Q: What sequence folds into this?
């Protein structure tokens, strides 16, 4: 009996070892990478060697994969290797971005060294969605004025002093609203902020977190690329895709089929000037407008401040400029990250009313200006309003004022 | 030849199974140990004879990466790993710059511009039998 058990045990042992060997042999031979920043071996490129380097600022031999993505660095089995990845395949998802992209030397630094990207984004209108929530609550009688109280999530301004006086926003809870319209708004529309996943449906497709803007892809299509050369099409992934029906609280996709960039840029009833459809959005709008300036704002209108006069000036004043004399000027850093111009000390560039450098512009010796498209690398030249035939007073700088004379026929 | 008894056959079979299991187990162990973490980066570099680097020379050592300076005061080796996040620096006309985030360093390793907050690290050098040895640890 004992001998028979020993024989059976030997057979089982052999079968078990054989199965284990077979399973083990199915794994690929590991390819090791030791990123200089971590010093820890990781085997991710065993399967992912074909992925492009995500950006020139994040070379894989320096950063590796795990520092940003998480995951089990020595696992060769896909499910195990991916089991602890941050944000699934998207480490820039805002609920994990601090862990993935933060840190004082990366994107979680201080406002003083202009590395507080994560903090600024978390308080930006693109994340809080405050303007929409406030205006809808005001419209449907839930609050008597347009003072901002709610965001998609609760958020506190930690970068004091606050220039807007808005120190915190509470989390908007549609269940607490008595208006059916506001309840429907909460149910249908809160996905329209870059912190959340988009609603189901092709018309809503976009990415979430940092890559909502900084990936050249959108929707379900994903590419392993980050960019600061944002084409207008990237902005259009959220903006300009349709309208919101306040009666049904639903999104109505554009029905027109844009054939040209001119049509694609704006919806049919909108007016625009040449530069508005020739340039990309980021050629004029600044990073603080899009990514936030660290303060909580009441609405998009409250945080966007670039106007025509920012670049063109008024009939009585030239636009603001700055001659670059400090090699540590933020303009050089921005130009380095989006290398479409070769800025030099001594160059004079346009700046915004808040002092932000429009680093892709240049004041030319003849008094005209040059702008290089951040995505297209196209050169554009333009003139100041001062000295032109323009008869506007310069007091009204809404786009309608300029559209009155400069709107393009469609 | 004597006919193998049933008992001997079973004994032989058991021994064969155990031997095969042992071989398989040893093979798996060998495979496991062959997969230990790749050897870490070298921390010692033999730069060859010191006489190969005349006074006034400035030699880029890409395999380290570092730059070896030979001044009248002696040899100095500066790491060409950016002190910000560890990218390998590139040489330019008046020093080094980081291709990742734009930090700038002078020829002597001094910090010229961020985001790095300190100059380049000096690496340990030793001279043995006229050979220069460089250590990165």
A:
């Amino acid at each position: 009996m004992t001998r028979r058990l020993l024989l059976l045990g030997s057979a089982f042992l052999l079968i078990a070892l054989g199965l284990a060997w077979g399973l083990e042999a199915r794994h690929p031979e590991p390819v090791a990478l030791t990123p200089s920043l971590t010093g820890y071996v990781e085997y991710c490129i065993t399967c992912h060697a074909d992925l492009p380097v995500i950006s020139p600022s994040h070379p894989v031999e320096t950063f590796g994969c795990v520092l940003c993505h998480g995951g089990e660095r020595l696992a060769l089995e896909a499910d195990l290797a991916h089991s602890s990845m941050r944000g699934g395949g998207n480490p820039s998802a805002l609920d994990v971005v601090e862990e993935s992209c933060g840190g004082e030397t990366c994107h979680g630094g201080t406002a003083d060294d202009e590395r507080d990207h994560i903090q600024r984004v978390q308080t930006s209108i693109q994340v809080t969605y405050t303007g929409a929530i406030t205006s809808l609550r005001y419209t449907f009688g839930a609050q008597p004025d347009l003072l901002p109280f709610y965001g998609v999530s609760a958020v506190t301004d930690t970068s004091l002093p606050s220039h807007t006086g808005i120190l915190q926003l509470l989390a908007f809870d549609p269940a607490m609203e008595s208006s059916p319209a506001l309840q429907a708004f909460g149910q249908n529309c809160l996905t329209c902020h870059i912190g959340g996943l988009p609603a189901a449906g092709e018309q809503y497709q976009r990415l979430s977190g940092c890559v909502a803007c900084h990936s050249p892809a959108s929707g379900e299509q994903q590419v392993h690329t980050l960019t600061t050369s944002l084409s207008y099409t990237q902005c259009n992934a959220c903006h300009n895709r349709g309208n919101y029906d306040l009666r049904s609280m639903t999104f109505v996709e554009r029905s027109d089929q844009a054939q040209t960039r001119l049509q694609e840029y704006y919806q049919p009833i909108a007016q625009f000037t040449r530069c508005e459809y020739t340039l990309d959005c980021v050629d004029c709008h600044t990073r603080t407008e899009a990514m936030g300036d660290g303060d909580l704002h009441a609405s998009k209108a409250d945080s966007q401040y670039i106007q025509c006069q920012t670049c063109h000036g008024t009939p009585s004043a030239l636009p603001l400029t700055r001659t670059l004399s400090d090699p540590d000027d933020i303009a050089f850093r921005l130009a380095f990250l989006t290398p479409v111009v070769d800025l030099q000390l001594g160059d004079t560039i346009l700046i915004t009313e808040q002092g932000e450098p429009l680093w892709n512009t240049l004041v030319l010796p003849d008094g005209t200006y040059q702008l290089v498209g951040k995505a297209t690398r196209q050169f554009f030249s333009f003139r100041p309003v001062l000295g032109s035939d323009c008869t506007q007073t310069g007091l009204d700088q809404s786009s309608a004022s300029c559209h009155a004379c400069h709107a393009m026929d469609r | 030849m004597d006919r193998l008894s049933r008992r001997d056959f079973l004994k032989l079979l058991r021994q064969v199974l155990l031997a095969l299991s042992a071989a398989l187990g040893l093979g798996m162990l060998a495979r496991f140990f062959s997969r230990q973490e790749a050897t870490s980066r070298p921390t010692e570099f033999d730069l060859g004879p010191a006489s190969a680097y005349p006074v006034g020379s400035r030699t880029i050592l890409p395999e380290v990466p570092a730059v070896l300076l030979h001044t009248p005061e002696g040899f100095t080796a500066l790491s060409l790993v950016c002190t910000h996040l560890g990218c390998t620096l590139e040489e330019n006309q008046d020093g080094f710059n980081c291709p990742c985030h734009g930090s700038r360093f002078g020829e002597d390793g001094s910090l010229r511009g961020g985001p790095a907050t300190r100059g380049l690290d000096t690496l340990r050098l030793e001279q043995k039998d006229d050979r220069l040895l460089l250590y990165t640890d």
Observations:
- Chain A has a mean pLDDT of 89.
- The interface with chain B takes residues 3-4, 6-7, 10-11, 13-14, 17-18, 20-21, 24, 30, 32, 34-37, 39, 41, 56-59, 62-63, 74, 105-106, 113, 115, 327-328, 332-333, 336-337 of chain A (CB under 8 Å).
- The longest helix of chain A spans residues 2-25.
- The first strand of chain A starts at residue 150 and ends at 151.
